[in-house]
Design brief:
The complex is a heterodimer.
Chain A lengths: L1 H17 L3 H12 L4 H7 L9 H37 L18 H15 L3 E2 L5 E3 H4 L24 E3 L4 H10 L4 E10 L11 E11 L4 H15 L6 E8 L2 E10 L16 E10 L1 H6 L8 E8 H9 L6 H4 L2 H4 L4
Parallel strand pairs in A: 1-4
Antiparallel strand pairs in A: 2-3, 4-5, 5-9, 6-7, 7-8, 8-9
Helix pairs in contact in A: 1-2, 1-4, 2-4, 5-10
Chain B lengths: L1 E3 H4 L10 H10 L3 E7 L5 E14 L2 E10 L4 E6 L9 E11 L3 E2 L3 E3 L2 E3 L1 E3 L32 H4 L5 E6 L10 H12 L20 E4 L4 E10 L8 H9 L7 H13 L3 E5 L7 E6 L5 E3 L5 E3 L5 E4 L4 E4 L3 E2 L12 E8 L1 H11 L4 H8 L3 H17 L4 E10 L6 E5 L1 H8 L5 H10 L3 E5 L2 E6 L9 H12 L18 E2 L1 H15 L3 E2 L5 E2 L3 H4 L24 E2 L4 H13 L5 E11 L10 E11 L5 H14 L6 E4 L5 E11 L2 E9 L1 H6 L6 E7 L22 E10 L4 H11 L3 E10 L8 E10 L8 H19 L2 E2 L1
Parallel strand pairs in B: 12-15, 27-30
Antiparallel strand pairs in B: 1-11, 2-11, 3-4, 3-6, 4-5, 6-7, 6-10, 8-9, 13-21, 13-22, 14-21, 15-18, 16-17, 18-19, 19-20, 23-25, 24-25, 28-29, 30-31, 31-35, 32-33, 33-34, 34-35, 36-38, 36-39, 37-38
Helix pairs in contact in B: 5-6, 6-9, 7-8, 10-12, 11-12, 18-19
Chain lengths: 340, 793
């Protein structure tokens, strides 16, 4: 009896190991451990064993059953695992294939940059304000200390609707409207669309956008102007960017400066981007002209202020490396998709 | 402005500074040098050579073989020129030389004889008789004897550099050599040499008079020069004029031009023969008056144009151009020299109206200060004397309507420092201002500054601060962060932040933002098939547009959108969504008497095979939902650029504010669009400025909703919207009703359709019982039948 159990156990373990699939294993299990299986038959043969030997024989058979059941179970786990691995490996796909995201949309690069600039100045306590694009002569010129015979008023620069109504040529008109309404302390930013009578070419557009900033308070100095523009240049170009002031002239500021940022491409050594100068002109700025303050009912002996204005399109084109001022207005999808 | 460094050196030494260094210095004080023009830059390795021997070429009848001493050596040059002989000095382009036009000369054999260069004609060197006599002969340019080996640029006087300086509008005083010399002297810390003013006068029987009859002429002076000998000006004067771009004419005209560029005062010389009684009258032109100017063109004048006249006729268009009739000719024996101040606005207006520009008008337009009239006249008289162009007489006349007042500014180093944000000591300020010819008195911490007459731009202490920092150096301005300013809360108003939100929302709906011009062509309305009486045709016109296609302000965004869609399709971009958020401009009345309304407008276009009316509608509804807009009705849209059966219009408070749908095939054709395009235009004016209501949390129901489906048959014309609305309102338990199928066909009677709906039934406070559900279903079916004539299928 013990012999035949041992033999059966050894044979069965060999068959278990030889099983290649779960169903083969099941067949082996049924053949040995099933109701009419070989081991079950041996157990049934127990009645022929003398009663005194039955406990020992029973133990032998039960031990064998336990051993075999465990072997089946282990083999089953191994086979299932193998099968899973096979399945996973069969499911392997080509991961280099792309499935384009449908219905992707995005903002125009001018909007992206405008948002960034607005966020930057909002965080510094600036209020964002908007003003009309179709303006009166007063807000666009006169209040900004641009006298009637100033060259900037020429027909060839400004689009006129009537003698007195025009398409604003600068967002500075918004400063006047703000200063008429709000008294210092003032920190404002007026982004918006402006118009100049220039034929569109690689560097000009008859429609473009400006971002104009204004601060009026007690004791505001040119160093404060420098401070904020330095910060701006570092934020929008790079941490290494330096700014420099060059004397210039605008009727609504005195002193007036052009603001240059060190060229990001060559770092100031001179390259094709900066035309060899190492600097890129980014905006005009200055201390608010006393006459402008007076025109808005602000006492220039009590308050001083600074203003700066930059071309949003220009900054956007510099930052994204857009080479032609006409491209952003063509709205080619292949262009629009590059910035989102 | 063209600034010759050689000319500049008459008044301030720039020794030791290269043109680049000088340009840098000028940039720091506010004068950008746009271009550094090196004369003769395109000529290299061309020297004067002396022909020592000339022989016939052994193998070519038409060629000669010359031995030419070029200073360092004697070279052999083969030439075909006939006009050279031994002993002549000629320009020689050596081996490796470059000539104007980029031509490079290389040593090469000519019919078997090596030629080590080329003798040049005037034309090959890019010069004419004006530059050097003999430059225009047929053959080689024969030079005056100069040492062999001398650089030809020296011989041709091309060893100068001209700076093209950009002068800002506030500095008309720097529109001249002398004006720039003042700045250069100040920035280099060198001495400004005075203008040479020296001449003798003789008496004269002609007695001029001046009568100014219009305020556009502030001052007018004139003086007679007699015994005029009209001839060519000396070489140096002609050279300088050419360098600043002026064609030399004759000594009299050249002197006036020379003074214009040297000190910035336009002058004019009249032949006294043609000025009746030498009596000058400055007046406005009379109606229908005309004048033939020096350019031989005849101009009709109008009553707002200023002229110089005698008692009979106009002699010149004031500040713009003289008359041909009274101009200087070879026969001229005496001239009346005008030096005057005309208002810049008047000169500009006249120049524009006539389409006539001159160096004089260009100068007057920028503004000529009161002092320069006298300086210019004196300088010109000196040159007449020096060049022996005529005898200066003591016959003169002048009139002055405005007297030059002396401007005095009282400020302090403290005041200036406070504006700049850095401390600049009063002695530093004094030094800078004095170098710029301001007079400064330091009175107990107060600076009393007398402004020189040529600085009309200086008004108050901020202008002084600018002068100081220009020279003190902007590099000294350090960054600070508004230590004295009050804190302010930044941010944007509701409208701006809603606009930003909307842009983000629409791009999230799969659309790319575009940006287009605010002005469009007047005929765009025709392309949109707008009827003649359409309000969208009330476009605001630009007086001076860049062209017809940019001539009116847009009243809608549809035109630019369809144009952009067509452009993208032509670039083979397909299946896309675009949007633009911009202003449209609607005039209350035309012509404009007041500023028009600028309306924030959204336009979207969905393009391509997968788009339908419903994909667009879903996007529109999402916007309405986001802004909590509840339209009170939806109707078919009758705008002519929409498909009448596939377009809708939403109304709020009975006002249409959003139209959307398929673009009308005829309009699509007008834009050459063959694809399906769905367009939406939304007027944001009614809601964009309003705060979006704060969202409030609704407790989540603990009780699961029961889903039910229902198919009903209704007449074709019953809109699904009505069925869904009826369903949702039929019972308070009914939620989330949606359509899942519309069926028409064999199973359904003609003229009817089957609508399959899905909806939920739920209560907030309990699990529904069978009775609840049965009762709700009954109510629903009853309502559907009553409102829509629906029968359960």
């Amino acid at each position: 009896m013990e012999e035949s159990v041992k033999k059966l156990t050894a044979e069965t373990i060999a068959s278990i190991s030889a099983c290649k699939t779960v169903s083969e294993l099941n067949d082996v299990r049924v053949k040995t451990l099933g109701k009419s299986g070989a081991l079950t038959a041996l157990l049934k043969g127990m009645k022929d064993v003398p009663p005194e030997k039955r406990p020992a024989a029973g133990k032998i058979v039960n031990d064998a059953r336990e051993t075999l059941e465990q072997a089946v179970s282990e083999r089953q786990k191994a086979l299932e695992n193998e099968e899973l691995l096979r399945k996973l490996s069969e499911e392997r796909i080509d991961i280099t294939i792309d499935s384009p995201l449908k219905n992707h949309g995005g903002l125009h690069p001018l909007s992206i940059m405008r948002n960034r600039i607005e966020e930057f100045f909002c965080s510094l306590g600036f209020v964002i304000a908007d003003s009309p694009e179709i303006e009166t002569d007063y807000y666009n010129f006169e209040a900004l200390n641009i006298p009637a015979d100033h060259p900037a008023r020429e027909m060839q620069d400004t689009f006129f609707i009537t003698e007195n109504i025009l398409l604003r040529s600068q967002t500075s008109s918004g400063q006047i409207r703000m200063m008429e309404k709000v008294k210092p302390p003032i920190k404002m930013l007026s982004p918006g669309r402006v118009f100049r009578s220039d034929e569109a070419d690689a560097t000009h557009s008859p429609v473009f956008h400006q971002v104009e900033g204004l601060v009026v308070d007690k004791g505001i100095t040119m160093c404060d102007l420098k401070g904020i523009l330095d910060l701006f240049a570092k934020k929008f170009f790079s941490n290494e960017t330096k700014t420099r002031f060059r004397p210039s002239y605008f009727p609504f500021t005195e002193p007036s400066v052009e603001v240059d940022a060190s060229c990001g491409k060559c770092g100031g050594k001179g390259c094709n981007v900066c035309k060899g100068t190492g600097w890129i002109e980014i905006m005009g700025a200055g201390m608010v002209n006393r006459n402008v303050l007076k025109n808005c009912g602000i006492n220039p002996d009590e308050y001083t202020g600074f203003a700066f204005g930059c071309g949003l399109d220009r900054i956007t084109n510099i930052i994204y490396g857009i080479s032609d001022a006409r491209i952003p207005f063509e709205n080619d999808l292949r262009f629009l998709k590059q910035f989102n | 402005m063209k600034l010759s460094i050689e000319w500049l050196n008459d008044y301030v030494s720039t020794d030791g500074y290269t043109p680049e260094q000088l340009a840098d210095k000028l940039l720091n004080i506010g004068f950008e040098v746009e271009e550094i023009i090196r004369l003769g830059e395109d000529i290299d390795r061309v020297v004067a050579g002396n022909i020592t021997d000339i022989k016939k070429h052994p193998d070519a009848d038409k060629l000669s073989v010359c031995s030419v001493d070029v200073g360092s050596e004697t070279v052999t040059i083969v030439t075909g020129a006939k006009n050279v002989k031994a002993g002549d000095t000629v320009p020689v382009a050596l081996d490796g030389a470059t000539l104007p036009g980029g031509k490079v000369i290389k040593a090469a054999p000519l019919r078997g004889v090596m030629s080590y260069g080329m003798m040049c004609s005037g034309k090959e060197l890019g010069v004419d008789n004006e530059v050097i006599d003999g430059a225009e002969v047929d053959g080689i340019l024969i030079l005056q004897a100069v040492a062999a080996g001398t650089d030809i640029k020296e011989v041709l006087r091309l060893n100068d550099t001209v700076l093209d300086v950009s002068v800002t509008a506030n500095r008309p005083d720097c529109q001249s050599v002398y004006g720039m010399a003042r700045e250069v002297a100040a920035v280099l810390g060198r001495k400004l040499k005075p203008l040479e003013i020296k001449y003798d006068t003789v008496s004269c029987e002609l007695k001029p008079s001046v009568d100014i009859r219009d305020g556009a002429c502030g001052r007018y002076t004139c003086q007679i020069i007699k015994d005029i000998k009209v001839q060519r000006s000396p070489q140096w004067m002609r050279d300088r004029l050419r360098k600043v771009g002026v064609r030399p004419i004759n000594n009299v005209v050249d002197i006036t031009n020379y003074v214009l560029f040297e000190v910035g005062q336009p002058l004019h010389a009249f032949d006294t023969e043609f000025v009746t009684d030498c009596g000058i009258i400055v007046r406005k032109a009379k109606a229908k008056e005309s004048i033939t100017a020096l350019n031989s063109e005849t101009y009709e004048l109008t009553e707002n144009m200023l002229v110089i006249a005698d008692c009979k006729k106009p002699l010149a268009i004031a500040g713009v151009m003289g008359g041909e009739y009274s101009g200087v000719s070879e026969k001229t024996s005496a001239v009346l020299l005008e030096a005057a101040g005309f208002a810049k606005g008047s000169v500009r207006a006249t120049s524009r109206a006539l389409g006539l520009r001159s160096d004089s008008s260009a100068r007057y337009e920028k503004g000529v200060d009161g002092m320069s009239v006298n300086v210019g006249r004196e300088r010109a008289l000196t040159l007449f004397h020096k060049l022996k162009a005529g005898k200066v007489t003591d016959s003169k006349a002048s009139k002055e309507l405005v007297s030059t007042s002396v401007k005095v500014i009282r400020t302090s180093a403290d005041e200036i420092s406070k504006l700049l944000g850095i401390t600049v000591k009063s002695n530093a300020i004094e030094k800078i201002l004095k170098s710029l010819q301001f007079d400064v008195q330091n009175e107990k911490d107060r600076l009393v500054i007398t402004v020189p007459a040529f600085r009309e731009d200086i008004d108050n202490y901020t202008d002084i601060a600018e002068e100081v920092i220009r020279f003190y150096g902007y590099d000294n301005i350090k960054s600070s962060f508004m230590p004295t300013a009050k804190s302010t809360a930044g941010g944007m108003d509701v409208r701006l932040s809603n606009l930003k939100l909307l842009k983000t929302l629409v791009s999230g709906l799969g659309a790319y933002e575009i940006t287009t011009y605010s002005f469009i062509g007047k005929k765009s309305c025709d392309k949109l098939n707008l009827p003649q009486n359409s309000v969208l045709r009330r476009q605001i016109e630009i007086l001076n547009p860049l062209g017809e296609e940019y001539s009116v302000m847009r009243t809608q965004l549809a035109h630019n959108m369809l144009t952009t869609v067509a452009y993208n399709l032509s670039k083979k971009n397909s299946d896309f969504r675009l949007f633009e958020l911009g202003k449209t401009y609607i005039a209350k009345e035309l012509p404009l008497s007041d500023l028009p309304a600028e309306t924030d407008t959204l336009c979207m276009a969905f393009v391509g095979g997968k788009e339908t009316f419903y994909t667009l509608k879903a996007a529109v509804c999402e916007i309405l939902r986001k802004f909590a807009l509840k339209p009170d009705k939806l109707e078919y849209c009758d705008k002519p650029y929409y498909h009448p059966g596939m377009s809708g219009e939403y109304f709020v408070d009975s006002k249409a504010f959003c139209s959307f749908g398929k673009v009308h095939p005829l309009v699509a054709k007008n834009y050459d669009i063959a694809e399906n395009v769905y367009l939406c235009e939304m007027n944001l004016g009614g809601f964009i400025g309003k705060e979006i209501p704060q969202a409030k949390f609704a407790p989540l129901s603990k009780f699961q909703a029961v889903r039910r489906d229902l198919a009903v048959v209704v007449k074709d014309e019953i809109p699904v919207g009505l069925i869904l609305q009826t369903l949702e309102q039929a019972d308070e338990l009914c939620v989330d009703a949606e359509l899942f199928d519309v069926y028409k066909g064999e199973q359904i009677e003609k003229g009817y359709k089957s609508i399959a709906l899905s909806f939920g039934l739920s209560a907030k406070d309990r699990t529904l019982t069978d009775d609840d559900i049965t009762s709700a279903m009954k109510k629903i079916l009853a309502a559907l039948e009553q409102n829509c004539g629906a029968k359960l299928r």
